[in-house]
Amino acid sequence: PGRYAALLAQRLEAHGATVWLVNTGWSGGPYGIGSRIALTDTRAMVRAALTGALDTVAYTTDPVFGLAMPQSCPGVNPQTLDPRIAWGDATAWQVAAQRLARLFHANYTVYADEAPAGAAEGAPILRD
């Protein structure tokens, strides 16, 4: 995986590409409580990214994963854009986010020796 990641990084840099991570999965709570992101929302997010509509909106940084999240997106309810709000229970979200962060850290140890310098700086933030 490291070789392909390095090739992707080279191509992205060479072409000045902008990369967007779009949550098309589960939101609003754990399985059984939350739901999948609506396809109409996913389409609106991708459309906004491709047309430049997200270039001028304000962003918030996720406190665990460090990802920049748009505070608004044409055609998408702002609550959908921030998982802490979508869950409706900030404490439950924090517990789930920390569990996922620990899984990321554990998985990273498998590849740490092959990772480029500084890669660990992008790791999720663990809180006790």
Explain how this protein is built.
This protein is mainly alpha-helical. The chain has a single domain (2-120), classed as Phosphoenolpyruvate Carboxykinase, domain 3 (Alpha-Beta Complex), CATH 3.90.228.20. 45% of the residues lie in helices and 8% in strands. The chain is built from 5 helices and 4 strands, in the order αββαββααα. It has helices spanning 2-15, 39-51, 78-81, 83-87, 90-111, and strands at residues 26-27, 35-36, 59-61, 68-70. It has a two-stranded antiparallel ribbon with strand order 1-2. A two-stranded antiparallel sheet has the order 3-4. The longest helix is centred in the last third of the chain and has 22 residues, at 90-111. The radius of gyration is 16 Å and the shape is globular.
Summarize the structure.
The protein is mainly alpha-helical. The protein is 45% helix and 8% strand. The chain has helices spanning 2-15, 39-51, 78-81, 83-87, 90-111; strands spanning 26-27, 35-36, 59-61, 68-70.
